[in-house]
Amino acid sequence: MEEERMEPPPPPPYIHIETNDFLHRRHKRQKEEDIAVCECQYNLLDPDSACGDRCLNVLTSTECTPGYCLCGVYCKNQRFQKSQYAATRLVKTEGRGWGLLADENIMAGQFVMEYCGEVISWKEAKRRSQAYENQGLTDAYIIYLNADESIDATKKGSLARFINHSCQPNCETRKWNVLGEVRVGIFAKQDIPIGTELSYDYNFEWFGGAMVRCLCGAGSCSGFLGAKSRGFQEATYLWEDDDDRFSVENVPLYDSADDEPTSIPKDILIKDEPNTQDGNNNTIQNTGIPIIASSSEFTPMNVEPSIASSNEFTPMNVEPLNVSSNELTPMTIEPLNAIPMGVDFTQNGSIEYGAQCAEDALQNSTRGVANLQNQSAPRDNNHTELVAVKRRPTLRGGKAKRGMRKQLNVVGICDRLASEVAREEILYCEEMKNEAAAEIDSLYDEIRPAIEEHERDSQDSVATSLAEKWIEASCCKYKADFDLYASIIKNLASTPLRSKEDAAPTEQNGLMYLENGP
Ligand SMILES: C[S@@+](CC[C@H](N)C(=O)[O-])C[C@H]1O[C@@H](n2cnc3c(N)ncnc32)[C@H](O)[C@@H]1O
Question: 309 in a domain, yes or no?
Fold first, then answer.
């Protein structure tokens, strides 16, 4: 007698959508001048002529705009718009909740489906992520869309929300420009036989959530979900003791025999499937479960021999300025601030000269540069006031707020110098320093969005050309600082001084004034 199979409880309800729901802004309307028109012309004898791999729009991950493509109805480059999804089915997995199987043979490069959900701001994503965690939700569905926005498929989403993570995935996410909006698609990285579980690497897309031990079973498994994502690095949480889903004992042992692609024989699937793909905004209620495989018989992941993932992020040292400008180099950039070389103020406002002071300053300056080169280097915020990887306080209007520090009263110093030439030299150096500082400030406005984008979405890097400009401007600023301080020291040491009474500086704007001159 056949043993009765226990039906797993259905997935928690969610609203099924097949286009993104914009919560914090309107859907962009594509302007006519922004429409990219390809040069394809449909040729009956060559189906690929209608916006296949050679189409200029396809090559730039842009979908053709209906009415503007000469191939008309034959255009094959409107897959997001037409929801041309691969056939898939839901399955209950062992230890990883629900997952999605290929329900047809999927070809390498094929568009599998769009990751749809609610488009929310990055701030809201952070808030929601925390709220979900507080509510005890262990499954996280928020992914990055771009520098400022995320897609949350927790309450509303497409079937892509069920695709689990693997450290050796058979799919990947790709961003496409569709009618002026960026949309995230799941694409097959390789041929995927029917019945194989679909997976992609969450590392670069996942916003994070409760820290979850990865059960993908791959030989090169990184141990945790999104282990390389920023969400993971920022995480401070631990999983519940009694949540055996995340316990070490339940991590499946890797056996290379499991590397063979597995598929679920159709006859073990319970055939009672509500159609979750037909149309938008269908609430999937607990009543209808898509085709479900018994968890005990299901060997889900199609694990491949261990090869380093090509999109693995490796922080790089910043090379000298002769790197080709069109190369993209992931890096952390820290704006550099004035570091007095050999001159400093003591608490009572007097100037101190001396080798130790100069050496400290030099060390701090070198440390600032070292931080540019090595992301993991400890940060010394005393001397690197604007640290790109941290959110900084801003003034109204978005301008960076400079840290409160004692300033060199150049005018006061010049007042004490008897020589006009010496005064002019110092004032000239100060002007150079101010120009270099202004250059850094204006460059910071340019580089900040790029840094933030890089920060939030490791796939996007700060362009090397921009990084080069930043490094160059930082070096100029260092040099200008150095020249100014060197000039002050030289002239103070070698030029006659005026008496304090003649020069007595007054206090202005809370600036420290030279009181204890020789
Ligand atoms: C986008 S959801 C995927 C669908 C989910 N399994 C479900 O039942 O709805 C991501 C969540 O699935 C689980 N998950 C995905 N991949 C996993 C893996 N390789 N190991 C363990 N849990 C995984 C984690 O709880 C994660 O937060």
Answer: no
Structure tokens at 85: 């999804």
Q: 250 in a domain, yes or no?
A: no
Ligand 1: residue whose CA is nearest its atom 24: 139
Q: What residues pair up with 143 in beta bridges, in sequence order?
A: 151, 206
Which contacts (CB < 8 Å, 24+ apart) does range 450-453 have?
Answer: 451/332, 451/333, 451/388, 451/389, 452/147, 453/146, 453/147
* Residue that finishes a domain, picked among 213, 237, 261: 237
Mutating to test ligand 1, I would choose from 165, 171, 199 the residue with most ligand atoms within 8 A of its C-beta, which is 165
Q: 3-class SS at 349?
A: coil
Query: Which atom of ligand 1 lies closest to the CA of 140?
Result: 27
The answer to whether position 462 is within a domain reads: yes
Within 10 Å of residue 429's Cβ, how many Cβ atoms?
21
The answer to whether the CB of 141 is under 6 A from ligand 1 is yes
Decide whether any atom of ligand 1 lies within 6 Å of the 92 Cβ: no
Residue nearest to atom 4 of ligand 1 (CA): 162
- Cα–Cα dist 381/402, whole Å: 12
* Residue span of the structural domain in which 448 resides: 410-494
Split into its structural domains, the chain has a count of 2
Torsional sign, CA 394, 398, 403, 406: negative
3-class secondary-structure state, position 111: strand
In terms of DSSP bridges, do strands 142-144 and 149-152 run parallel, antiparallel, or are they unpaired?
A: antiparallel
The CATH number for 126's domain is 2.170.270.10
What distances in angstroms separate CA 76 from CA 51, 188, 362, one per listed residue?
A: 5, 17, 61
The torsion region of residue 369 among left (phi > 0), alpha (psi -120 to 50) and beta comes to: alpha
Return the closest-CA partner of residue 12 out of 201, 157, 118: 157
* Ligand 1 and 212: CB distance under 6 A: yes
pTM of the model: 0.52
Q: Would residue 358 count as lying in a domain? A: no
For residues 477 and 440, is the Cβ–Cβ distance under 8 A?
yes
* Mean pLDDT in consecutive groups of 10 residues from the start of the chain, 518 residues: 66 93 90 93 88 94 96 96 96 94 97 97 90 88 90 96 95 95 96 97 73 87 69 42 42 37 31 35 33 34 35 34 35 36 37 36 36 31 27 35 54 83 88 85 71 53 69 85 86 80 56 46
Q: Which of 202, 237, 272 corresponds to the end of one domain?
A: 237
What is this model's ipTM? 0.99
Ramachandran quadrant class, 104 (left: phi over 0; alpha: psi -120 to 50; beta: rest): beta
